């Protein structure tokens, strides 16, 4: 096994996404605790910071109560803080930073005070023209309080609002300027607005509970608050929820849709449905396809928790090789977990996962994970399985080799840290110490979702639906 793979012990894994949630109770009921539970269900999408902003639609126009901080949802909010967040309309956010550093100032939702009152905004995704837009705004006197791309969106909406009659029109005009990936929830004193970029990179759905409308990144958050799924927001669509119910503007729904295929492979929770396709079913399908592409004789199929488990079940269903559990995951390891230093004997992967020795001893194991990014996880756990007495370890990956950076909301390392950039599959197999290694093929990806659904697979192919930016998207404002 190649030791170099462990040099970057600090940086295993994929760095997540963001999650957005919004609710407007037309009957005037309090919404803070629903936002809290909605965010709790979306915690897997971002663990750096979180926040809630609420307002009372019957109260003074423009009064917003907000609280945000670094940390997990249950670390940041206490019953006392939630009790103070009174209001019947509100938005929430869980963040994994993609543009702008991970800091308290950059936590979302953003709340802006301007001449028309207040504006709250929660954003999932990443703009590719944020730096140039920000410069243009700064040269006309704008002052920014954060270094995130999301503030550029908020600023544009506020500016456009001065020249048009309604905040949803301002959102529409801002959408004509911003480029990239965004699922947005905007809160004005009397309206809750959801917007999805015309490519539809990121998910956003609408639900309803009694007389309250809910917007959320994933359907699992609707379930958590007892809301019924109504529909996905369409790519390019703006939905406005006001005292009369829901109004839709689909005039920007004219792009070739490029939903992020990695949402199905890794990001989203398996109990969510995104654009009509169950995430769980697509992972089962990925496992079945892997079994057809890369069969091997073995005694047991195991998944790397959590996101490898469903594909492992699919592989087992396709082959009739028993599905088992080889790893126990420590559920208390979050992104805020202090990773061991390189010269310490502990490793972050071993702290996260341990092997069930009695299950794997003397067995030929097929180990399924959803992806190999830097290779740290696979190398460690193949080694752990072998040390526990596994006779053979065949690694199967339920996605194609991850070779190219993402500019649209996934914070992944630059090409030189991606193990599949510059290494053949045989070299990777050797580096992770597996007896065999097989990936899904790009050509089979359409089978993970419904026929005819179009998607972005830029991280596997380098073909992006729009020209990627030349500059570092984290931005010069961070230097
Ligand atoms: O090759 P690497 O750089 O090690 O990254 C690949 C791993 O990262 C992800 O898991 P992650 O540990 O982020 O979280 P999970 O527990 O949600 O699967 C992914 O599921 C792979 O297991
Ligand atoms: N992961 C995301 O969706 C991040 C949203 C936004 N770009 C930020 O950095 O806060
Ligand atoms: Mg994993």
TrEMBL record:
Its EC number is 2.4.2.14. InterPro entries: GATase_2_dom, Ntn_hydrolases_N, PRTase-like, PRTase_dom, PurF, PurF_N. It comes from the Bacteria. PROSITE patterns: GATASE_TYPE_2. [4Fe-4S] cluster binds at residues 260, 406, 456, 459. GO terms for biological process: 'de novo' IMP biosynthetic process; purine nucleobase biosynthetic process. GO terms for molecular function: 4 iron, 4 sulfur cluster binding; amidophosphoribosyltransferase activity; magnesium ion binding. The keyword Metal-binding applies. It is an enzyme of class 2 (transferase). Residues 18-244 form the Glutamine amidotransferase type-2 domain. Binds 1 Mg(2+) ion per subunit. Binds 1 [4Fe-4S] cluster per subunit. The active site is at residue 18. Pathway: Purine metabolism; IMP biosynthesis via de novo pathway; N(1)-(5-phospho-D-ribosyl)glycinamide from 5-phospho-alpha-D-ribose 1-diphosphate: step 1/2. It catalyses: 5-phospho-beta-D-ribosylamine + L-glutamate + diphosphate = 5-phospho-alpha-D-ribose 1-diphosphate + L-glutamine + H2O. Keywords: 4Fe-4S, Glutamine amidotransferase, Glycosyltransferase, Iron, Iron-sulfur, Magnesium, Metal-binding, Purine biosynthesis, Transferase. Mg(2+) binds at residues 307, 369-370. SUPFAM superfamilies: N-terminal nucleophile aminohydrolases (Ntn hydrolases), PRTase-like. Its cofactor is Mg(2+); [4Fe-4S] cluster. The keyword Iron applies. Pfam families: GATase_7. Transmembrane segments: none annotated. In the C-terminal section; belongs to the purine/pyrimidine phosphoribosyltransferase family. Catalyzes the formation of phosphoribosylamine from phosphoribosylpyrophosphate (PRPP) and glutamine. This is Amidophosphoribosyltransferase. The gene is purF.
């Amino acid at each position: 096994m190649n030791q170099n793979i462990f040099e970057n012990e600090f940086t295993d894994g994929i760095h997540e996404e963001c999650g957005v949630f919004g609710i407007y109770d037309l009957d005037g009921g309090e919404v803070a605790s629903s936002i809290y539970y909605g965010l709790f269900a979306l915690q897997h999408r971002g663990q750096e910071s979180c926040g809630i902003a609420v307002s009372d639609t019957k109260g003074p126009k423009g009064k917003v109560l907000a609280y945000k901080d670094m940390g997990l949802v249950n670390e940041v909010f206490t019953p006392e803080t939630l009790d103070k967040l009174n209001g019947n309309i509100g938005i929430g956010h869980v963040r994994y930073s993609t543009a702008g550093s991970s800091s308290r100032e950059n936590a979302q939702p953003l709340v802006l005070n301007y001449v028309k009152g207040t504006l709250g905004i929660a954003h999932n995704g990443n703009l590719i023209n944020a730096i140039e837009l920000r410069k243009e705004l700064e040269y006309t006197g704008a002052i920014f309080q954060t270094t995130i791309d999301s503030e550029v969106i908020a600023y544009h909406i506020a500016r456009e609002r001065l020249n048009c009659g309604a905040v949803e029109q301002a959102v529409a005009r801002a959408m004509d300027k911003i480029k990239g990936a965004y699922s947005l929830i905007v809160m004005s004193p009397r309206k809750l607005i959801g917007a999805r970029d015309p490519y539809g990179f990121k998910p956003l759905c609408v639900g309803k509970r009694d007389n309250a409308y809910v917007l959320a990144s994933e359907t699992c958050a609707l379930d958590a608050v007892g809301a019924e799924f109504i529909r996905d927001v369409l790519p390019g669509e703006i939905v406005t929820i006001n005292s009369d119910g829901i109004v839709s503007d689909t005039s920007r729904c004219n792009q070739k849709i490029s939903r992020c295929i990695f949402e199905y492979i890794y990001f989203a929770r398996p109990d969510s449905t995104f654009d009509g396709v169950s995430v769980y079913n697509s992972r089962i399908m990925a496992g079945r396809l892997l079994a057809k592409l890369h069969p091997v004789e073995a005694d047991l199929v195991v998944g790397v928790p959590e996101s490898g488990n469903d594909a492992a079940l699919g592989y087992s269903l396709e082959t009739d090789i028993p599905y088992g559990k080889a790893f126990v995951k420590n559920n208390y390891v979050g992104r805020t977990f202090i990773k061991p230093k390189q010269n310490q004997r502990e490793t972050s992967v071993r702290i996260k996962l341990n092997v069930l020795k009695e299950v794997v001893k003397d067995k030929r194991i097929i180990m399924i994970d959803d992806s190999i990014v830097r290779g740290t996880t696979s190398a460690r756990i193949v080694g752990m399985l072998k040390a526990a007495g596994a006779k053979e370890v065949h690694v199967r990956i339920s996605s194609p080799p991850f070779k190219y950076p993402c500019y649209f909301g996934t914070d992944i390392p630059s090409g030189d840290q991606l193990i599949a950039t510059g290494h053949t599959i045989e070299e990777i197999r050797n580096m992770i110490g597996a007896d065999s290694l097989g990936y899904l093929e790009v050509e089979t990806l359409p089978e993970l979702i419904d026929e005819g659904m179009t998607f972005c697979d830029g991280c596997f192919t380098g073909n992006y639906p729009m020209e990627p930016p030349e500059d570092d998207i984290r931005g010069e404002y961070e230097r």
